[in-house]
Amino acid sequence: MDQPKRGHADLLALVARHANVKGRTDSPYPGLWFWRCDEPVTKRKSQALTLSLAVIVQGRKAVNFGEHAFTYDPFNYLVLTGEADYESTIIDASAERPYLSMSVGVPPDVVARTLIALADSDLGGVDEPAPAYVSRLDAPIVDALCRLLEAVGDPAERAVLAPLIVEEIVFRLLRSDAAAVLRRAVRRGDEARIQESMAFIRAHAAERLTVENLARRAAMSPSHYAHRFRAVARVSPMRYVKHVRLHEARTLLLRGARAGEVAGQVGYASASHFTRDFKSYFGVPPAEYARRLHAAPDRPAEAQQTA
């Protein structure tokens, strides 16, 4: 018998179970984390590093990108469309009804693959997409998020099912009317070269890579290459290099490697630079990140294999 679809009450219960302390709580699944706040917070500076989904299950929040401002709540989700700096204000939160939310950072590879599959062809040039958009949180996405949070608790499901559920969520987000401008930015013709370049970066991330040599391999000028790469992957080429290096570092740390050793293995010449980038990406320094996840009730699947 098919399992019944889950609703907002189920998602609230699942997020509350994970967000049981103030501030940010990371999950064993890369890119998935939770936030809890017991009082309003004004103008907290934040940074989006890749396309991300932000969902509030209790409370309300405003985000400001300068020219663009959005407010969202448990009935609407926010999609951050790529790299961006912004300020966020938690409007509705109290000790009795804390602000609770979750965020799913989407790997650029999944973004690129999905946008290419959904790309609107035969369209003229489009403006750069807004840094974010708000859309209605519908039942299929709620159900998928519940399934994702349930899968994260089991090592085997986290390794096998969670990535598939994330791809389903991204497909639903990028197929929506609100994401039309993202689809139009991916023009037919150069997507294969960008995907090939992304594969090259994954295979050679520990080497010295520059926009110039990556563009040369893709037979594009550096400016055109950087522009098309961002349109397809929603991050810059060098941000993607950093993404690959840091996620490889995460895997090595969870397998027991020391932070100082990991820096050189993934392509960083400076351990301090690596630590700074890792903290910016994952919220805490590498050693602390590994300690927290190793202390979790079940050992992350990434300690055995890459998710």
From TrEMBL:
It comes from the Bacteria. Keywords: DNA-binding, Transcription, Transcription regulation. Residues 195-292 form the HTH araC/xylS-type domain. Coiled coil: none annotated. The keyword Lipid metabolism does not apply. InterPro entries: Homeodomain-like_sf, HTH_AraC, Tscrpt_reg_AraC-type_HTH, Tscrpt_reg_HTH_AraC_N. The keyword Translocase does not apply. This is AraC family transcriptional regulator. It comes from Nannocystis punicea.
